[in-house]
């Protein structure tokens, strides 16, 4: 086995050992524009979606509604080029920093959080 | 009923109508430092945690491990002063922008994502 491939397999096992999945085998992935810091959306990954994301550099999620893997932008063209993925302290959330092409939201807005902001006390 | 209180009740019902909770009655809350844009952590809220957060201006979550409400910072002093809360397009995720006192993570790190970053292709 060539060394780069061996390295990859080892890291995958390292990540897999740290991941704490929910009852459906999924972890939430917070998706953030890498340079502006905007939070674009939240999606879900299982081990295979994370593996594909790291292997291809294109953010790939598990669609809970369609029960299938979903390369973000595959139909819309609004891909997410992945810059980095970090696991949180508990291993149950991923932070995926991406460079987003076009709007992140399927509704056409820049992020999925473009609605009205509620403020404490004035709500 | 005085008008400001009536307004509050109406908005609560508006939010409640839009929220899509998981099987446990919870939605994930992405917590972001309002000025730097850093993603600090992910926590969970039910309707009551969101109501308390908006009423008090202090981020309040539902602890799944302890099965109780949890005012972030109540024991550590590392409170989160809430600037705004936004619902995503599907109503199943909250983005909570806060001003974090001290480290956000219970491990003492600045955010809960301060571990090693994985990069596509080099993983």
UniProtKB/TrEMBL annotation, chains A, B:
Mg(2+) binds at residues 88, 90, 92. One of its GO terms (biological process) is L-histidine biosynthetic process. GO terms for molecular function: magnesium ion binding; phosphoribosyl-AMP cyclohydrolase activity; phosphoribosyl-ATP diphosphatase activity; zinc ion binding. Residues 41-113 form the Phosphoribosyl-AMP cyclohydrolase domain. It is found in: Cytoplasm. Catalyzes the hydrolysis of the adenine ring of phosphoribosyl-AMP. Belongs to the PRA-CH family. This is Phosphoribosyl-AMP cyclohydrolase. It comes from Actinospica acidithermotolerans. The gene is hisI.
């Amino acid at each position: 086995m060539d060394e780069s491939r061996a390295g990859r397999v080892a890291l995958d096992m390292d990540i897999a050992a740290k991941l704490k999945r929910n009852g459906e085998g999924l972890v939430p992935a917070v998706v953030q524009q890498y340079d502006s810091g905007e939070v674009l959306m939240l999606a879900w990954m299982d081990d295979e979606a994370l593996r594909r994301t790291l292997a291809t550099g294109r953010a790939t999620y598990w669609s809970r509604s369609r029960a299938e893997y979903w390369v973000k932008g595959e139909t819309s063209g609004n891909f997410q080029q992945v810059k980095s993925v970090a696991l949180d302290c508990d291993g149950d959330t991923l932070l995926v920093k991406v460079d987003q092409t076009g709007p992140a939201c399927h509704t056409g807005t820049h992020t999925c959080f473009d609605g009205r902001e509620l403020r404490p006390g004035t709500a």
